[in-house]
Amino acid sequence: MDSMSALADAVSAGTVNGRLWFYSNYHCNLQCSYCLTESGPLVKRREFGRDAILARAAEAQELGFTGFGMTGGEPFIRDDMPQLVAELGSELPTIVLSNGTLLNERRLRELEPLADLPVHVQISLDRPDPVENDDMRGPENFRKVMEAIPKLVERGIGVRIATTLPDPDAVDPEERERLCELHRAMGIPDEDHVVRPIVNRGRAVTNAMGVLAGFEQLEPELTLTAEGAFYSPFGPTVRGGRLDTDLLVSRTTRPLSEPATALLRLAEQMPEGDDARIGIR
Ligand code: SF4
To answer: In this structure, which residue's CA is closest to atom 6 in ligand 1?
Structure first.
């Protein structure tokens, strides 16, 4: 079986997720207390170049991947990101994860072409109250996010909300309902609101937060960085300034068939029926 049909078959069978993730960069304007990648303004950027991303994306389509994801760091800290996301979204459904705080008028204008594409911008909003929300994510985060989301929605750009909590099952139902009322009022339906636990990697380890996530808890979902390919978007995390390698699949990302084949091999070894998997989106 060639690698194209093998990958496409595994996606149809649900053995691997059809989305190919890219870590565009590791720097960020924020420094959240649970950040998987220890991101901040001054960290090593580890930028994945535009041409390399587009080349891997073209290979991905040939192999049978069915969607793209972009994450970081904060992707929109890069000036080329709106155009890059539009190029990916012109090929396959694409999701870009963002903290939503860098969407000034110029950036919003640059993002307008996304309204005609199967692209979603997934923005983090953790709590319905500014003080609690900003405690984890930094000053003014709540206000900026609450301003940015309606501006994307009114431009017709797809938006999803991601809520990350220490223990989603322990949340006060009244607080949960207030958060849902907020996103519904901004035009984001319940199916576009994801709630997931903090994962115990990166800065969450330092701050003793989150659930453990290794091969058995994570869905196989090929994730590319400038420094190699990983089993999941929760793989290429950073601890003490060093890239974690426990979920590394391959040091090379080129040709894409190499890490894709390695991922398939690993996925086939995983026990079936694990319903406790953690998804980044
Ligand atoms: S969690 Fe996201 S927004 Fe917060 S520091 Fe990390 S990359 Fe930036």
So the answer is: 35
The CA 38 to ligand 1 mean position distance, Å, reads 8
Q: Which domains does the chain have, with CATH numbers?
A: 3-276 (3.20.20.70)
CA distance 158 to 279: 19
| CA proximity to 88, closest of 46, 110, 62, 60 | 60
The DSSP annotation for 115-162 comes to: GGTTEEEEEE---SSHHHHHHHH-TTHHHHHHHHHHHHHHTT-EEEEE
Rounded distance from Cα 11 to ligand 1 centre (Å): 29
Q: Is the pTM of this model over 0.85?
A: yes
Element (H, E) at 269: helix 257-269
Burial (CB count within 10 angstroms: exposed 0-12, middle 13-18, buried 19+), residue 188: buried
- Distance separating the N- and C-terminal Cα atoms of the chain: 31
Distance 64 CA to ligand 1 centre (A): 30
pLDDT in tens, 162-174: 999 998 998 899 9
pLDDT tens digits, one per residue of 217-271: 899 999 999 999 999 999 999 999 999 999 999 999 999 999 999 999 999 887 7
Distance 268 CA to ligand 1 centre (A): 32
pLDDT tier, 278 (very low <50, low <70, confident <90, very high otherwise) = low
Determine the atom of ligand 1 nearest the C-alpha atom of 40: 5
Q: How far is CA 220 from the centre of its chain?
A: 14
In the structure, which protein residues have their CB atom closer than 6 angstroms to any atom of ligand 1? Answer: 28, 30-32, 35, 37, 39, 72-74, 99
Q: Ligand 1 test: best mutation among 33, 35, 280, most atoms within 8 Å of CB?
A: 35
